[in-house]
């Protein structure tokens, strides 16, 4: 894919997503995004732009307790992190790794913001353990032994050339 096709695709995608998520500011630090409350905790270098966040937001991010937005090359990147009390918490995506993320994955000195989700929405499909699909069941029901390897004695006629 060359640059012009990529630019056309991203422009078309931006137009399709316009107006999908609606953001309403209540005050300087509180806002709602599609009627879900959020609080702006950190706004480094005035990075928070409500319209840009609404354009880049995805419903996948509603399961995270904290969302970090950073600007690089005039594009907003959003990434979610869990609170230790959240049952989806993993040490790699925990709130204590936000500083590491900012130092390692973001441009040096970039503008960023941290938003706290006041109403975390954990998807239903993550709350129940999913059963094995057909291929996994078939694999598990078979004998899981390897076929016997036939070993030849040294000097066997099939080894001689």
From TrEMBL:
Comp. bias intervals (Basic residues): 143-161
Region (Disordered): 138-161
Gene3D superfamilies (alphabetical): 3.50.4.20
Cited InterPro entries: YutD-like (IPR009370), YutD-like_sf (IPR038141)
Pfam family, one: YutD-like
The name this protein goes by in its record: YutD family protein
Organism, scientific name: Limosilactobacillus alvi
């Amino acid at each position: 894919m060359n640059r012009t096709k990529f630019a056309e695709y991203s422009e078309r995608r931006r137009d399709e997503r316009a107006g999908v998520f609606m953001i309403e500011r209540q005050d300087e630090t509180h806002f709602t995004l599609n009627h879900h409350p959020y609080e702006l905790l950190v706004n480094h270098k005035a990075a928070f732009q409500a319209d840009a966040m609404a354009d880049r937001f995805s419903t996948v991010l509603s399961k995270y307790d904290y969302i970090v937005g950073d600007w690089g090359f005039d594009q907003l990147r959003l990434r979610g992190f869990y609170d230790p009390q959240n049952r989806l918490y993993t040490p790699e995506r925990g709130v204590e790794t936000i500083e590491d993320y900012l130092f390692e994955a973001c441009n040096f000195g970039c503008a960023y913001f941290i938003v706290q989700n006041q109403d975390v929405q954990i998807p239903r499909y993550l709350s129940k353990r999913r059963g094995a699909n057909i291929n996994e069941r078939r694999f598990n029901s078979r004998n899981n032994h390897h076929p016997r390897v036939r070993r030849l004695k040294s000097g066997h006629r099939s080894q001689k050339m």
